[in-house]
């Protein structure tokens, strides 16, 4: 009888731990950027671009909210600098620019500073509001001079009861998609690279 109780207790403890693990949410939100739809321009092949992407925000987290009385912080995978490095390089390749593998190869430097990538969560007893913002500062530097441009996107979502990872990810993903489309459709940066590199 004692061994039966020990086995039952062990099974109960195992099931409790398993259910607790299943119900806990990851603190990492995963993002996959949209593919570029830019038109290849052979004239851009003369520009060899060194791309440097930096996260200039004060924190690595991309959102935080209170759940069951505890602060829950969320992070991005890939991190925001890697995410925009991928987006910008995909865009440049699609438009016909060549990406330098070393700084010495480049005739133009492109610096992307991620100044904001965050979803602010405001919660009440019955409703929540998620406000997401992404801001970039893009700088082009070449032999003839330099160019700078800010690109931003934002989204708001409201809903009933409390916010969760899925809702926060949806809002940030919409904002990221809007930002990515703005980068892919932008012609000012392409013109600046082409002009300042030659």
User: What name is given to the CATH topology?
Assistant: Double Stranded RNA Binding Domain
CATH class: Alpha Beta
Largest sheet: 8 strands, mixed
Q: How many DSSP-defined strands?
A: 8
Q: Name the helix and strand elements from N-terminus to C-terminus, one letter apiece.
A: HEEEEHEEEEHH
Q: What is the total domain count?
A: 1
Overall description:
With 198 residues, the protein is an alpha/beta fold. It has one domain (44-197): Lipoprotein like domain (Double Stranded RNA Binding Domain), CATH 3.30.160.150. Helices cover 35% and strands 37% of the residues. The chain has four helices and eight strands; from the N terminus they run αββββαββββαα. It has helices spanning 2-23, 80-95, 165-185, 188-197; strands spanning 28-30, 48-55, 63-67, 70-77, 98-99, 108-123, 127-142, 145-160. Strands 1, 2, 3, 4, 5, 6, 7 and 8 form an eight-stranded mixed sheet that branches. Keywords: Lipoprotein, Signal. It comes from Canicola haemoglobinophilus. Residues 1-20 form the signal peptide.
Please render the helix and strand layout as text.
Blueprint: H1 2-23, E1 28-30, E2 48-55, E3 63-67, E4 70-77, H2 80-95, E5 98-99, E6 108-123, E7 127-142, E8 145-160, H3 165-185, H4 188-197
Parallel strand pairs: 1-4, 2-5, 2-6, 3-6
Antiparallel strand pairs: 3-4, 6-7, 7-8
Offer a quick outline of the entry.
InterPro entries: Uncharacterised_YajG. The protein has 198 residues and is of the alpha/beta class.
């Amino acid at each position: 009888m004692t061994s039966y109780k020990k086995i039952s207790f062990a099974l109960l403890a195992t099931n409790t731990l398993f259910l607790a693990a299943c119900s806990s949410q990851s603190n990492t939100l995963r993002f996959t950027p949209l593919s570029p739809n830019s038109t290849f321009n052979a004239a851009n092949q003369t520009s060899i671009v060194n791309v440097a992407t930096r996260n200039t925000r004060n924190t690595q987290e991309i959102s935080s909210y209170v759940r069951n009385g505890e602060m829950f912080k969320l992070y991005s995978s890939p991190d925001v600098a890697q995410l925009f490095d991928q987006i910008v390089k995909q865009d440049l390749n699609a438009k016909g620019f060549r990406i330098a593998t070393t700084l010495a190869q480049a005739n133009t430097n492109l610096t992307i500073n991620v100044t904001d990538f965050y979803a602010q969560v405001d919660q009440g007893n019955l409703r929540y509001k998620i406000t997401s913002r992404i801001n970039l500062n893009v700088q082009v530097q070449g032999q003839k001079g330099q160019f700078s441009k800010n690109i931003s996107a934002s989204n708001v979502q409201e809903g009933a009861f409390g916010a969760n990872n899925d809702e926060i990810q949806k809002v940030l993903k919409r904002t990221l998609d809007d930002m990515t489309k703005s980068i892919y459709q932008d012609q000012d940066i392409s013109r600046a690279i082409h002009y300042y590199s030659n």
